[in-house]
Amino acid sequence: MYDEIDKEEYEGHNQMWTPSLQAIPMPGIRRMINMAAKMDDVIHLSIGQPNFPTPQHIIEANIEALREGQTGYTMDAGLPELLTELAEYYSKRYNREITEDNILVTSGATEGMFLALSGTAAPGRQFLVPDPTFTMYAPLIRMNGGEVKTIPTRPENGHQLDPQQVIDAIDMRTFGIVLNSPANPTGAVMPKEAVEAIVQEAAYRGVYVFSDEVYDHLVLDDMEYPSVIRCTSDLDHVMAVSSFSKTFAMPGLRVGWIISSQGAIKKLRRYHMFTTSVASTPAQWAGVAALRGDRSCVDDMVEEYRRRRDRVVQLVSETPHLTGYWPQGAFYILPALPPNTDGTSVAMRMLEETGVCVVPGDAFGDSCPNSIRLSYSASMEDIERAFERMIPWLAKQKF
Ligand SMILES: Cc1ncc(COP(=O)(O)O)c(C=O)c1O
Predict the structure, then answer these.
(1) Taking the domains of the chain in order of start, what are their residue ranges?
(2) CB neighbours of 188 closer than 8 A, spacing ≥ 6?
(3) How far is the CA of 181 from the centre of ligand 1 (A)?
């Protein structure tokens, strides 16, 4: 079944496309979802988006904007009201001055990372990228001729990125470092000291830090979120990217942003105009409502993710052959199967035989082929049902 889908959708090379486009790997997540779509009674622990409804006041603001004729383009940097709200919000949150000129509104964090990485990756420039990590960074860097040097993280250390390892990996060719905390697919949250050490060394060595902070509000333990913005004296060497997608459960509305120095934002604005022009105007009004409105909806969602995280960690510890750890953020855990197990084959057989859909670790890099990503952006009931199927099935496997 897998071979069929693979060939149909991704291996039909066509002379029309550039070698770099043809080199984009088939996303491991899509592979599993495609397989699952052909089956009945599947429980998904594979989903990378919130399973909560978008808060009502945000939906109302979107609809209201449409009714009021807010259907034209906004300014290229973003809707002025949204830029003002974001500037105020970031200045307060990180206790430093962030102005409208430090912000570019994009179509989600995806466009933010796309602009930041493809606007800087080039032959001769090396980027340090954690492994495992979110699927888009390495292909984007390579598509633009850049070189990727991976920094592996390990389940034994809760998939914490070791700042010393990152610093030691910087060499003459290193141009940038990609960070993603809380992390997809591991749920790891970097402590402030680690972010500070990397950001400060990078600034000293003239290396740029590209920080994907899309899960910045989904920190499930009692800790202050260490954005790179909090850990740097100036914004010249950092680009922080985030969005409304995960925090406010509105990924389909496609509004995100980049925060950086005024000079970088000026350059990125031009690239943005050539890429998506502007983010959706009514969706930007929905973003204004998200920032102006009552944020207890976010606290409620975080509380529920926390409850699920606690339960999933417990269930993983009761599952034969799975080794977990304590993920502190986002809504993922990447437990390991025994060493040298092929996580892809296990995930596919488990889907076929139990109807539980997870994502194999090799979808996120080369360092965790024996792991599987479980997303707890699923109801507690589905989580319980999924483990009721997984536990006896895994108990029967011989690795
Ligand atoms: C680490 C990471 N960055 C970016 C995104 C995409 O965010 P957005 O919806 O804002 O484009 C995702 C979505 O799963 C993600 O996990």
Answers:
(1) 2-53+297-396, 56-292
(2) 153, 158, 159, 160, 161, 181, 182, 327, 328, 329
(3) 12
- Helix extents (H) in 95-226: 108-118, 137-143, 163-169, 192-205
The third-level CATH classification (topology) of the domain covering 2-53+297-396 is: Aspartate Aminotransferase, domain 1 (3.90.1150)
Is 324 close to ligand 1, i.e. is its CB under 6 Å away? Answer: no
In this prediction the pTM is: 0.95
Ligand 1 near 287 CB (within 6 A): no
In angstroms, the CA 343 to CA 339 distance is 10
Ligand 1: nearest atom to the Cα of 256: 10
pLDDT digits (tens, 9 = 90+) for 230-257: 999 999 999 999 999 999 999 999 999 9
N- to C-terminal Cα separation, the chain: 23
| CATH number of the 56-292 domain | 3.40.640.10
Q: Contact at 8 Å (CB) between 106 and 135?
A: no
Residue 297 CA, ligand 1 centroid: distance in Å: 20
Residue 175: count of CB within 10 angstroms of its CB: 19
Number of Cβ atoms within 10 Å of the Cβ of 47: 16
